[in-house]
């Protein structure tokens, strides 16, 4: 069953029931060596799934749970290998969406849940989008409205010598460092540690191209292209650019926020909406390169690949 979390919709199964977890892989057409995140009712449950849990894990949990931070820990021997993709590690988090959290609390157990989409597709941030991807392949989706963050959780590896971020997300490196009281690394290439971080991922069906605002003006506006922009400069560029013969006045432009958190919240939904229009191309204005845009830039890079 697909359930809303504060990040994206997840496809959940009891994490201690390997037969149920296996159905997730079938429904998503996901390779079985891709491990799943175990969602817990509270930090107290960590010790049922992981061992040798460092003190930092509890401090981070105290600060960020329930919320969009996933911790990678050493798994306990009895955790099913289908959950961990055969690895010695387990990823855990306590989600903050009230519906998901209340289900976890009533079960008093862990739920394994990847994003509720077919492998490599865009993660759903609405119930409609989850159904679009998985209708006929899952029993139901619980509609909890649009997701608060819209991008997947930050994944922090606490097994490495020093903590490292494996997937950028809503909880920034700076906030983690301030709790840990030391540096947190962000390896650029970490495909081995996180198989889900393959180079092409989070993809709409329509080809996607990144472009600076200036570049947009040098091409004529085309009704077969969708435009995803964030700066007022890009909007005025598009306003002033010549229309090619095919437009009939129709242009598909979506403007997202200049605030990276709000941009992230609306990104997948906007890409999904443009994808539904069966265009030839989606042109995305390149976001700023600063660290607060890291999670957004990471997803866009993979979507464009
Ligand atoms: O926000 C989120 O994290 C959402 C919601 C539903 O909680 N979940 C999510 O799950 O994005 P998924 O499966 O789409 O991405 C989980 C990522 C994958 O890249 C996977 O490889 C990595 O977490 N992961 C999970 N367990 C791991 C492990 N034991 N070792 C290394 N990577 C792991
Ligand atoms: Mg996913």
What does this structure look like?
The protein has 305 residues and is α/β, with parallel strands linked by helices. The protein folds into two domains: 2-180, Alpha-Beta Complex (DHBP synthase), CATH 3.90.870.10; 208-304, 3-Layer(aba) Sandwich (Rossmann fold), CATH 3.40.50. It has eleven helices and 14 strands. Strands 3, 4, 5, 6, 7, 8, 9 and 10 form an eight-stranded mixed beta sheet that branches. Strand 1 (2-3) and strand 2 form a beta hairpin. It is globular, with a radius of gyration of 20 Å. The protein starts with a strand and ends with a helix. The chain binds threonylcarbamoyladenylate (TXA) and magnesium ion (MG). Threonylcarbamoyladenylate is lined by residues 5, 7-8, 10, 34-37, 68, 70, 72, 84, 87, 89-91, 95, 113-115, 152-153, 155, 193-197.
Give a brief outline of the structure.
The protein is α/β, with parallel strands linked by helices.
Task: Write the topology of this structure.
Elements lengths: L1 E2 L6 E2 L1 E2 L3 H11 L8 E3 L6 H4 E2 L3 H10 L4 E7 L5 H4 L4 E5 L4 H10 L3 E2 L14 H8 L19 E4 L6 E4 L5 H8 L27 E4 L1 H6 L6 E5 L2 H9 L11 E4 L4 H16 L5 E5 L8 H11 L1
Parallel strand pairs: 4-7, 6-9, 11-14, 12-13, 12-14
Antiparallel strand pairs: 1-2, 3-8, 4-8, 5-6, 6-7, 9-10
The site of magnesium ion has 4 residues, from loops.
Ligands:
threonylcarbamoyladenylate, magnesium ion
* Highest CATH level, the class of the largest domain: Alpha Beta
Compute the number of structural domains.
2
Which fold name fills CATH's third level, the topology of the largest domain?
DHBP synthase
**Main sheet?**
8 strands, mixed
SS field, number of helical segments? 11
Going by CATH, what is the homologous superfamily of the largest domain? DHBP synthase
Q: Can you tell me the CATH architecture of the largest domain?
A: Alpha-Beta Complex
Structural class: alpha/beta
Report the C-alpha radius of gyration, rounded. 20 Å
So what's the overall shape?
Answer: globular
Percent helix among the residues?
Answer: 25-40%
The share of residues in extended strands comes to 15-25%
Distance from first to last alpha carbon: 30 Å
Overall pLDDT: 92
């Amino acid at each position: 069953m697909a359930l809303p979390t504060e990040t994206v919709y997840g496809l959940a199964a009891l994490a201690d029931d390997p037969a149920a977890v296996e159905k997730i892989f079938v429904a998503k057409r996901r390779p079985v060596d891709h491990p799943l995140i175990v969602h817990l009712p509270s930090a107290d449950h960590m010790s049922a799934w992981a061992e040798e849990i460092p003190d930092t894990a509890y401090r981070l949990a105290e600060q960020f749970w329930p919320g969009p931070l996933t911790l990678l820990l050493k798994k306990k021997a009895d955790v099913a290998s289908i959950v961990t993709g055969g690895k010695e590690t387990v990823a855990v988090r306590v989600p903050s969406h009230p519906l998901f959290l209340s289900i976890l609390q009533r079960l008093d157990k862990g739920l394994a849940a990847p994003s509720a989409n077919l492998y490599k597709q865009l993660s759903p941030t609405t119930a409609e989008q989850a159904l679009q991807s998985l209708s006929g392949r899952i029993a139901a989706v619980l509609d909890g409205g649009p997701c608060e963050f819209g991008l997947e959780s930050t994944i922090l590896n606490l097994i490495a010598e020093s903590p490292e971020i494996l997937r950028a997300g809503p909880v920034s490196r700076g906030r983690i460092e301030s709790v840990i009281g030391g540096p947190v690394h962000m390896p650029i290439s970490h495909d081995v540690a996180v198989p889900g971080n393959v180079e092409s991922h989070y993809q709409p069906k329509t080809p996607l191209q990144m472009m600076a605002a200036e570049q947009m003006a040098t091409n004529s506006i085309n009704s077969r292209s969708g435009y995803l922009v964030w700066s007022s400069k890009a909007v005025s560029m598009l306003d002033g650019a010549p229309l090619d013969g095919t437009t009939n006045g129709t242009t598909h432009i979506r403007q997202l926020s200049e605030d990276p958190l709000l941009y992230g919240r609306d990104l997948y939904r906007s890409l999904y909406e443009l994808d539904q229009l069966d265009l030839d191309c989606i042109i995305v204005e390149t976001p700023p390169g600063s660290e607060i845009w890291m999670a957004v830039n990471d997803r866009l890079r993979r979507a464009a690949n």
